[in-house]
Design a protein that fits this description.
By secondary structure, the protein is of the alpha+beta class. The chain folds into three domains: about 1-90, 2-Layer Sandwich (Uridine Diphospho-n-acetylenolpyruvylglucosamine Reductase, domain 2), CATH 3.30.43.10; about 90-225, Uridine Diphospho-n-acetylenolpyruvylglucosamine Reductase, domain 3, CATH 3.30.465; about 245-305, Uridine Diphospho-n-acetylenolpyruvylglucosamine Reductase, domain 1 (Alpha-Beta Complex). The chain has eleven helices and 18 strands. The protein has a five-stranded antiparallel sheet with strand order 6-7-13-11-12. A four-stranded mixed sheet has the order 1-2-5-3, covered by helices on one side. Helix 4 (about 110-120) packs antiparallel against helix 8. The radius of gyration is 20 Å and the shape is globular. The model has no long low-confidence stretch (mean pLDDT about 95). Bound molecules: flavin-adenine dinucleotide (FAD). Flavin-adenine dinucleotide binds near residues 134 and 232.
């Protein structure tokens, strides 16, 4: 079936310039290093190629976009249909523009964007330095950094956003304004099947040495308060209004839970850790057990911040 879908799509779209691969493993692309393969993995050559592909892809075939997969659990049975992942060559460019603006491809790493901004003396994007995702993921998630102790390292994507280019599921290339994005806390209102290809951000003039010093403090903050050297997906749950998820989890006894090879971090109780041998089912099962525990002990229902995609191993086996 997998080979058939990739072959069918190739035959159907002879002018495609990007690469189609059947049954391609995805776990190596993810921060958690778990999950099954993509039925078809498409790497577009550029924005026009992506638009051409989506325009001709039959509407019933599901499409899943992945960025640097730092906020994602791919389930063990993999992802049916088409998974799209960009190449850094086609979508990783970063350019400095007039008036302290930065234009970045959707697959540019947030950290690299922050470093380019520092070199150019553009302040305001330091918060991106510590976020291990791509610009596409930052737009989708309205990625941001908070600190109780140091406001200079704080920031959110929506505060710096000027405009984005995207391709709709029907294959139209569109421009998105801040109003179109409808940013909310850790999300945006753009349809889930619209794919961002590029964005422009507004900064302000700041001395490069000062920016580099702030970036270093972003790094210190991360190393002190968060997990940086383990397999994780960052904050597992959004903070419910008026609460911190890490505190709810800790106070409910969530640090004593373990499912298979997955447990919550003692350094940051809202970070989930995948130990060697963990499966996506362990990780998701732990998250669901935490939700049930916090609801029982505190009467608050946590909402996943991490995106869960694909199907279970059992479903993949049984069709
Ligand atoms: C150690 C660690 C620390 C973290 N710290 C923070 C933090 O401080 N703040 C924070 O906000 N997040 C944090 N995260 C989570 C994560 O880095 C962010 O959510 C990031 O923005 C995700 O980007 P990504 O490229 O990895 O997206 P992915 O995880 O690949 O995808 C996330 C979502 O974005 C969508 N997406 C990705 N690219 C595109 C695109 N081009 N077009 C449309 N949709 C797209 C995906 O479909 C998915 O729905 C952390 C994660 C880790 C592992």
């Amino acid at each position: 079936m997998s080979g058939t879908l990739a072959a069918r799509l190739s035959a159907f779209m002879p002018d495609l310039r990007g690469r189609l691969l059947a049954n391609e493993p995805l776990a190596p692309f993810t921060w958690l290093r778990v999950g099954g393969p993509a039925e078809v993995l498409f790497t577009p050559a550029d924005t026009d190629d992506l638009a051409h592909f989506l325009k001709h892809l039959p509407a019933e075939i599901p499409v899943t976009m992945i960025g640097l997969a730092s906020n994602m659990i791919i389930r063990d049975g993999g992802i049916p249909g088409v998974v799209i992942r960009f190449s850094p060559r086609a979508f990783g460019q970063i350019g400095v523009e007039e008036d302290n603006r930065i234009r970045a491809g959707a697959f540019a790493a947030d950290r690299k964007v922050a470093m380019e901004a520092a070199e150019a003396g553009i302040g305001g994007l330091e918060f991106l330095f510590g976020i291990p995702g791509s610009i596409g993921g930052a737009l989708r998630m309205n990625a941001g950094t908070r600190s109780n102790t140091n406001p200079e390292i704080e920031g959110e994507t929506r505060e710096r956003f000027v405009e984005a280019t995207a391709v709709t599921r029907a294959g139209a290339i569109i421009r998105l304004t801040p109003e179109d994005m409808r940013f909310v806390y850790r999300g945006c209102g753009v349809p889930a099947d619209t794919i961002f290809t590029e964005a422009v951000f507004q900064g302000f003039a700041r001395d490069p040495d000062e920016i580099r010093a702030i970036n270093a403090r972003v790094q210190e903050h991360r190393e002190r308060d968060q997990e940086t050297k383990v397999r994780t997906a960052g904050s597992t749950f959004k903070n419910p209004p008026g609460h911190s998820s890490w505190r709810l989890i800790r106070d409910s006894g969530g640090l004593d839970l373990r499912v298979g090879q997955a447990e919550m971090s003692r350094k940051h109780a809202n970070f989930l850790i995948a130990h060697d041998g963990a499966t996506a089912a362990d990780i998701e099962g732990l998250g669901e057990a935490i939700i049930a525990l916090v609801r029982e002990k505190q009467g608050v229902t946590l909402e996943w911040e991490v995106k869960r995609v694909g199907i279970s191993a059992e479903l993949a086996r049984n069709g």
